[in-house]
Design a protein that fits this description.
Two copies of one chain form a homodimer. By secondary structure, chain A is of the alpha/beta class. The first copy, chain A, has a nine-stranded mixed beta sheet with strand order 2-1-10-9-11-12-13-14-15, with helices on both faces. In chain A, strands 4-3-5-6 form a four-stranded parallel beta sheet, sandwiched between helices. Chain A starts with a helix and ends in an 8-residue tail after the last helix. Chains A, B: This is AMP-dependent synthetase. Chains A, B: Pfam families: AMP-binding, AMP-binding_C.
Chain lengths: 509, 509
């Protein structure tokens, strides 16, 4: 049960089939359309290059890149040779990338040409810009790489950094077995087969594109790279490549719906495309519009980076096909039924706990956080929810962790609070998520200014953008006289959030 | 990764959905149509009954039964409680069943009412007739069973007896993990989902119905029990229950084709049913007729009981959909592409070797045979084959083991030889498989009579039927002056087979 199983089958059975179509608009010359045979050769060239560089098994190779064929190759090349891949969110600021590279102890850092200048200060023992530098200087074509000495399903394959309850993101260690089982289960429930065409509407750094690249390769599915999410461009690619399957957060599908409104002629993919929505609870209206305006099948997945991610899956049951559209959409807005092999329960305090072969091995170099997350042998999702006693479906009702999910990106409210607090004018701050039509949630900061100090909304936002990825900055700031606390001094976030979420459908607050 | 994962999900998500429809013609009253909730309750009643009987974890429970809802329940109940299920071929003679029960050391034997009289001599510490005796005397409804103390994916779940290179069948130990991975992989490649309806055209004792009952339950698929294979009855059930998926040997599909010829009106299931063919190489003509005369999708699987069984899978690729029917059928007659997670190679001597998470743990109480079968860390299939360097598909070209597969049943030629040799008139014997339109292969005995002795074909056949299951008896006997041997005294079976297979398509000889 290692990642090699997926690529080995692709190379054996789909040697001459179209494997990967790179984004034509890469800043480095795109990789020419690769059959899975050629893709596997390129994977070996990466491995032989890392061998020549002296990068040993178990060492970390960090990659900061937009979606690209090269990143896709590295998601296979690095773990298949017993090394650990660390895909880095391309939106992070230099300090943040620096933290990830340092905390993971990466010996190699590979960066996209567009990110090169911005990340020039980020150091690693070996640093390459993807494209010319790596094609000529790192990859070794025709050299047989050293095979992984002891392939082990429990070895860490990737470390994916995710914002959680702490200020700094934590590195989620996913093993080969985690990824293998997630891939098989995801493929089973979404009924993937070699007749599919997959479009990478999801960032590949994000839980390894949710693990889809692996099962797609294993089943010989053509994968089309999309560098940047854009509604019209998605429709164009669906049309051009005969796409049948995509994954993404609700914000992605809202963009597609907007683009469809001005699309000339029939929207492509009707009765052919199915989409998997995750990363935030989708509004019922989005679900219904996807079904009606696009004619695409809407399915939903719930999970976390810590669970590889698939925990539940929701699809309209055959028995429900005849229900009124709105009722179908309402049923689909729930997180879904636990995937095969996943056990869920709700704790007394209402938190969703999970057991599965896809639960993380641990947080990299964080034994205490790991023990806490896996207390009593269950993974603590930090989300509140309920299981329907009738059909076993999970509904997420409350996010316990101080995490805001905006446009599918996790943002730690504590991290944002830390940054705002570093502004000299700020005495107290609380950061919450408030509803947003397009992004699901957006970030709001409640600020108490220091006595005599002055600062306005734009000062605070600019300060955040200077120190953090732009998507982590609040979109609004409210100044308050004080922030209410409990007797023990704790801020009760749910109380702060309440007025903003009143009357909003599916208040995940 | 235990069998509980499948039934737990069925009970959680499909509590009120139709789970199992028993055969209406059971000799014991059939189990009423059971939702998966009810099915799970009955499974627990079996477990509580075994608890009360004092049957401990790791003990063997043998079941000799035609297909029935009760056998299906036991395939879950026994291994889910940490015990080991031993499904017994219902065609075996009392001596043969006795061997299986004794060799496995079963403490419980459950027999179908129809088999009760015939197997009256077969002893076990506890013996029950399925139906009234077990419903009232063994099963404990409403009693919570003792949970399995240490669920372990590497524990043996079932022991399935299979004829191999030795005279006596060997017990193949399949672990929970073997069965789990086989189920997931089978479900993935056959694209099973909750909209399917499955008909048990395959004997459930046969590698646990190839593992299908597990994944069907896990995905909430309605399972329709068929007690005895009959072409017209299969068509009737396909029509009545809206069946979409079935498995079986080529002989089953030939029976269906025969029945379709006299079926009144349109043959049911056109463009809806897909079938998985295995157990023997299907003739190209059968494939083509299934596609054309029935309009069912034909797919093929290759594997052995020792591999849970899925090793390869063959389905018409989307790119081949436009090929002429005959060429498509020819491509489909190959064993197929290794399933995800399966590694195959062909040894220097031409034998197909396999590595997979579905390879058996061992032969029960046969350490030498186990070591031999798993030499060098590869499972030795005993079959000769080639891998297409273009598309990676396996073709089985030669069966190395002295096993004859007739109508999907493995028969050890050595076992048949032993039995024939026990006839006082026989001096020498060689048993081979020869081509048969309906059964794929049929059994032929070449016999040298003892000097002065007399016996004719019917004597030899009757002698076999007296001592073995009927399907193991030769259908023809040829008397010879001598049987050619090598210098070391070995019979070269392939030479004996050659004249019969000359000109026969796909000579698996």
């Amino acid at each position: 049960m290692t990642i090699a199983d997926f690529l080995d089958r692709a190379e054996l059975g789909f040697r001459d089939s179209p494997g990967v179509v790179d984004e034509p608009q890469q800043p480095a010359p795109p990789v020419p359309v690769a059959s899975y045979g050629r893709f596997a050769e390129r994977v070996r060239a990466w491995q032989a290059g890392l061998d020549a560089l002296g990068v040993g098994e178990g060492e970390r190779v960090a990659v900061a890149s937009h979606n690209s064929a090269r990143l896709l190759e590295l998601l296979f090349a690095v773990p298949m040779s017993g090394r650990i891949c660390v895909p880095v969110n391309f939106r992070l600021k230099p300090e943040e990338v620096d933290y990830v590279v340092a905390q993971s102890g990466a010996s190699v850092l590979l960066v996209d040409p567009e990110l090169d200048a911005g990340l020039s200060e980020v150091k690693a023992p070996h640093r390459f810009v993807l494209g010319e530098q790596t094609e000529a200087g790192l990859m070794r074509f025709g050299t047989e790489p050293r095979p992984w000495s002891q392939p082990d399903e429990d070895a860490t394959a990737t470390i994916n950094y995710t914002s959680g309850t702490t200020a700094r993101p934590k590195g989620v260690q996913l093993t080969h077995r985690n990824i293998w089982v997630n891939g098989m289960t995801f493929g089973l429930h979404t009924r993937v087969w070699e007749g599919d065409v997959y479009l990478h509407t999801l960032p590949m750094f994000h839980c390894n594109g949710w693990g889809m690249p692996y099962v797609m390769a294993g089943l010989g599915v053509k994968q089309v790279v999309l560098r940047k999410v854009d509604g019209t461009e998605i429709l164009r690619r669906v049309d051009e490549h005969g796409v049948t399957l995509m994954c993404g957060a609700p914000a992605v599908w809202n963009m597609v719906l907007d683009a469809a409104a001005t699309w000339e002629g029939e929207v492509p993919g009707r009765d052919r495309v199915r989409i998997v929505c995750a990363g935030a609870p989708p509004p019922t209206r989005t679900i219904q519009r996807v079904q009606e305006e696009l004619g695409w099948e809407f399915t939903q997945l719930y999970g976390l980076t810590e669970t590889s991610p698939m925990l539940t899956f929701n699809r309209t049951r055959p028995a429900d096909a005849a229900l009124p559209a709105e009722e179908r959409a309402r049923k689909l807005s729930r997180a879904g039924l636990p995937a095969l092999g996943v056990k869920l329960k709700v704790s007394e305090s209402g938190e969703v706990l999970a057991r599965s072969n896809t639960v993380l091995d641990g947080y990299w170099d964080k034994p205490e956080e790991t023990a806490e997350a896996l207390e009593d042998g269950w993974f603590h999702t930090g989300d509140g929810g309920t299981l329907d006693p009738g059909d076993g479906h999970l509904t997420i009702s409350d996010r316990k962790k101080d995490v805001i999910i905006t446009g599918g990106e996790n943002v730690s409210s504590i991290e944002v609070e830390d940054t705002i607090f570093s502004h000299p004018a700020v005495a107290e701050v609380a950061v919450i998520g408030v509803p947003h039509e397009k992004w699901g949630e957006t970030i709001k900061a409640l600020v108490v200014l220091a006595e005599g100090a002055t600062a306005d909304e734009s000062d605070i936002i600019a300060h955040c953008k200077q120190h953090m990825a732009g998507y982590k900055a609040p979109t609004s700031v409210e100044f308050r006289e004080s922030i209410p606390r409990t007797a023990t001094g704790k801020i009760q976030k749910f109380k702060l959030r309440q007025p903003y979420w009143a009357g909003v459908e599916r208040g995940v607050n």
